[in-house]
């Protein structure tokens, strides 16, 4: 931890339980930098709703994942600050604070240097519960507002708009404390070097915590009396962070052994696996799509071994337990951010686009592997939710829905109010008697039995310290359909129909409740993930309707988030009045993850639709990504452009697959696929350099980079080029294509050769011109190591070849 906490406490004359620390509830997507290979929650502590939420070193409960952004933060008599001119929903939530807020930019930095004041940087996002709590408790406080305005230059940042700023200062907070989360609050020198950092602070002192007002007063005092010491220590920590965060090939020529990294990663996951409920932690328990994807890949390459079977069982069981738990919205579909307990029962109710996108793919892969329609139904439900609640009419996808909402109009918002139910509500909505049951039974009683609703509520008081959820229930599947049917002497299909009808009635009733706040900001990266979600699921299930959603999402990206003149992606766009699409001025340009995730989405969309225009655009975006982010000396990609991040003390390479995969991990896969589509050797060379640069990180903690370990395996195996020769719209071509999509083959590219020698792919891969249709039928070839199989026209024979 750089030994930094000691000097933070001594310099500021604060108790040890004060500053430079992680908040008490961990927010989504951030594990400690030393994300353990055993159990991440052991560092974080117990349930995300219990214990003290103050920013204290002694607190062990994890940081919350987000929540309310829709509380009115303004009153009519208040004058807006300069954030009123911003587009970000998060910044606009602070536009009526009595704080002289600045957005991140040169104006704020110049003011700090001119007036010789420290910068107070506060980073969060619009659906973050504890961001809102701090806004309500501290940033609306007139006295605290005066301190922030007079003694500091206060800067607000939406982490989803500026992930580079967030990553740099989160690195500092995590390195000088036990973890990180949001809101993230960091004090900087006028040269943007951090010297104190923390997360959520309560407004006033407590028995074991230091309040925000006290922190401000002491930092003000120390800046006046010991500024040189602060500056020296800040420089020392920045230098240490630079050395610590360096990722480079060094003297290494090749990446490590894929077999070794695979086995180590699997063993580390196996050690932390929850046998009963699935997942890889106690509480809080997060969906981990990158881990599930790794386990499926590991199973495929080890499927004849005990470890391979174990990996498959771990992934499928986790997905089933999540889908049965309260982390899944059984009424409206989609998944909440994480579970506050190890049973996946009581969630933190926020819904994020990136979770929906990745989980749709995970459940589709589970269906490919198992053939169990349970998983495909879950995937379809996720995408149904996204289409209904997170989709812009022009094809783009919104970022998130909040956790909090008013139980009734005019009431104070509460977490989960939109999603929980009382027994009385369910009984009133579903009073119909169930015919044929062995005892008197209503539809409501059947549903309550199956989903575990009780009169007293099924939420433990330890998960509800404020008592906001007393008597409320989270729907979670308690019994299989077979057991519920046997309990009441009913037919299984009859129970299925009754439950589905009941859930639909609850859904219609829920429409009349005040809805959670919608973060209508659209991010290129997350839209890219969602294009993948629709494309992959649509391809696996053979549903053109889902592929059309992916196509419309890609069209939205090209129309609204791509600058033709420069070839660059924009990071964000926003919903304007009347459903129009607006941009900030100047535009917020894309970061590495925007390019990596969009390129992945386009490659998935090409394989789903066989429309080569998406593949061509993917190649152009990859060229731009290489130009803007590639480290020609050390290998790998920086997270941000050099020019965009000018002034920041660090230029980082993301080295962790968390709630979202690392953009470098995704880029490694993209490079391999692009090499398969084009034969261009430079894509493969770049992939090898990237994997070599991350060698030390993979060797040290492979479980922190499961998606990159998967890419390492793909690079050291042989990529399959599956070529279908035929007309795109012909039935026999579609049958062969659907056969390919029905089989789980992660390390492949699917190519349509339509016989046109002037087509894009024919120009890239000259060998395609040598492949012929057999007897004028659509014909498949499976090519590896520059050699192709015999021609195949029967989908069943092709399936045998692909999945022996």
Automatic annotation (TrEMBL):
<feature type="region of interest" description="Disordered">
    <location>
        <begin position="30"/>
        <end position="80"/>
    </location>
</feature>
<keyword id="KW-0744">Spermatogenesis</keyword>
<dbReference type="GO" id="GO:0005576">
    <property type="term" value="C:extracellular region"/>
</dbReference>
<dbReference type="InterPro" id="IPR024705">
    <property type="entry name" value="Ssp411"/>
</dbReference>
<keyword id="KW-0964">Secreted</keyword>
<feature type="domain" description="Spermatogenesis-associated protein 20-like TRX">
    <location>
        <begin position="80"/>
        <end position="241"/>
    </location>
</feature>
<dbReference type="Pfam" id="PF03190">
    <property type="entry name" value="Thioredox_DsbH"/>
</dbReference>
<dbReference type="InterPro" id="IPR012341">
    <property type="entry name" value="6hp_glycosidase-like_sf"/>
</dbReference>
<keyword id="KW-0221">Differentiation</keyword>
<dbReference type="GO" id="GO:0030154">
    <property type="term" value="P:cell differentiation"/>
</dbReference>
<dbReference type="InterPro" id="IPR008928">
    <property type="entry name" value="6-hairpin_glycosidase_sf"/>
</dbReference>
<dbReference type="InterPro" id="IPR036249">
    <property type="entry name" value="Thioredoxin-like_sf"/>
</dbReference>
<comment type="function">
    <text>May play a role in fertility regulation.</text>
</comment>
<dbReference type="InterPro" id="IPR004879">
    <property type="entry name" value="Ssp411-like_TRX"/>
</dbReference>
<keyword id="KW-0217">Developmental protein</keyword>
<dbReference type="GO" id="GO:0007283">
    <property type="term" value="P:spermatogenesis"/>
</dbReference>
<feature type="signal peptide">
    <location>
        <begin position="1"/>
        <end position="22"/>
    </location>
</feature>
<keyword id="KW-0732">Signal</keyword>
<protein>
    <recommendedName>
        <fullName>Spermatogenesis-associated protein 20</fullName>
    </recommendedName>
</protein>
<dbReference type="GO" id="GO:0005975">
    <property type="term" value="P:carbohydrate metabolic process"/>
</dbReference>
């Amino acid at each position: 931890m750089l030994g930094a906490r000691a000097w933070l406490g001594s310099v500021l004359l604060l108790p040890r339980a004060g500053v430079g620390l992680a908040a008490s509830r961990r927010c989504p997507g951030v594990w400690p930098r030393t994300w353990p290979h055993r159990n991440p929650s052991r560092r974080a502590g117990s349930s995300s709703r219990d214990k003290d939420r103050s920013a204290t070193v002694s607190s062990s409960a994890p940081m919350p994942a987000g929540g309310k952004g829709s509380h009115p933060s303004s009153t009519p008599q208040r004058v807006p600050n300069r954030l009123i001119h911003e587009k970000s929903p998060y910044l606009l939530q602070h536009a009526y604070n009595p704080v002289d807020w600045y957005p991140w930019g040169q104006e704020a930095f110049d003011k700090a240097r001119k007036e010789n004041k420290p910068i107070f940087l506060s980073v969060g996002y619009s659906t973050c519960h504890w961001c809102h709590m701090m806004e309500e408790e501290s940033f609306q406080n007139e006295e605290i507002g005066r301190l922030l305005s007079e003694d500091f230059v206060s800067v607000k940042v939406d982490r989803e708009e500026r992930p580079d700023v967030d990553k740099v200062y989160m690195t500092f907070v995590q390195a000088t404390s036990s973890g990180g989360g949001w809101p993230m609050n960091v004090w900087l020198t006028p040269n943007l070097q951090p010297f104190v950092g923390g997360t959520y602070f309560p407004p006033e002192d407590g028995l074991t915590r230091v309040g925000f007002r006290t922190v401000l007063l002491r930092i003000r005092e120390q800046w006046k009396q010991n500024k040189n010491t602060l500056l020296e220590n800040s420089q020392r920590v920045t230098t240490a962070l630079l050395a610590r965060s360096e990722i480079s090939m060094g003297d290494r020529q090749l990446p490590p052994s894929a077999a070794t990294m695979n086995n180590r990663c699997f063993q580390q996951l196996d050690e932390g696996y929850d046998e009963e409920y699935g997942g890889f932690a106690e509480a809080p328990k997060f969906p981990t799509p990158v881990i599930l994807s790794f386990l499926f890949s590991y199973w495929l390459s080890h499927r004849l071994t005990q470890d391979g079977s174990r990996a498959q069982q771990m992934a499928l069981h986790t997905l089933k337990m999540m889908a049965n738990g309260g982390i899944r919205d059984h009424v409206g579909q989609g998944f909440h951010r994480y579970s506050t307990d190890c049973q996946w029962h009581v969630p933190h109710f926020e819904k994020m686009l990136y979770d929906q996108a990745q989980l749709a793919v995970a459940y589709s892969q589970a269906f490919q592997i198992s053939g169990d329609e349970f998983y495909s139904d879950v995937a379809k439900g996720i995408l149904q939710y996204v289409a209904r609640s997170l989709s812009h009419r022009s094809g783009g996808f919104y970022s998130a829905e909040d956790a909090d909402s008013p139980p009734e109009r005019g009431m104070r918002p509460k977490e989960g109010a939109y999603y929980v139910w009382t027994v009385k509500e369910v009984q009133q909505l579903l009073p119909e008697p169930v015919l044929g049951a062995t005892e008197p039974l209503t539809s409501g009683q059947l549903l309550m039995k199956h989903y575990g609703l009780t009169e007293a509520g099924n939420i433990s008081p330890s998960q509800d310290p404020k008592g906001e959820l007393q008597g409320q229930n989270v729907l979670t599947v308690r019994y299989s359909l077979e057991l519920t049917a046997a309990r009441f002497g009913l037919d299984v299909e009859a129970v299925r129909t009754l439950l589905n009808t009941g859930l639909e009635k609850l859904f219609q009733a829920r429409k009349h409740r005040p809805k959670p706040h919608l973060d209508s900001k659209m991010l290129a990266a997350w839209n890219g993930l969602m294009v993948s979600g629709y494309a992959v699921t649509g391809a696996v299930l053979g549903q053109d309707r889902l592929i059309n959603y992916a196509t419309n999402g890609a069209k939205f990206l090209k129309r609204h988030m791509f600058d033709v003149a420069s070839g660059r992606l924009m990071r964000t766009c926003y919903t304007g009045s009347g459903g129009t699409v607006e941009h900030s001025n100047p535009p917020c340009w894309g970061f590495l993850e925007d390019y990596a995730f969009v390129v992945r989405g386009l490659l998935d969309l090409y394989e789903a639709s066989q429309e080569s225009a998406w593949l061509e655009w993917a190649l152009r975006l990859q060229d731009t990504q290489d130009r803007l982010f590639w480290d020609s000396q050390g290998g790998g990609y920086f997270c941000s452009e050099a020019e965009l991040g000018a002034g920041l003390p660090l230029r980082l390479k993301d080295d962790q697959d968390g709630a979202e995969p690392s953009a470098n991990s995704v880029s490694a896969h993209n490079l391999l696929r692009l090499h398969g589509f084009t034969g261009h050797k430079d894509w493969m060379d770049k992939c090898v350099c990237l994997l070599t640069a991350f060698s030390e990180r993979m060797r040290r903690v492979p479980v922190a980079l499961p998606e990159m370990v998967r890419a390492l395996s793909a690079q050291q195996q042989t990529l399959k080029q599956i070529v279908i020769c035929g007309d795109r719209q012909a039935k026999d071509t579609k049958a062969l294509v659907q056969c390919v999509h029905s089989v789980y083959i992660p390390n492949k590219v699917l190519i349509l050769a339509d016989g046109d020698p002037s087509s894009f792919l024919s120009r890239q891969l000259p060998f395609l011109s040598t492949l012929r249709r057999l007897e004028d039928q659509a014909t498949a070839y499976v090519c590896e190591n520059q050699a192709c199989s015999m021609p195949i026209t029967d989908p069943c024979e092709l399936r045998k070849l692909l999945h022996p």
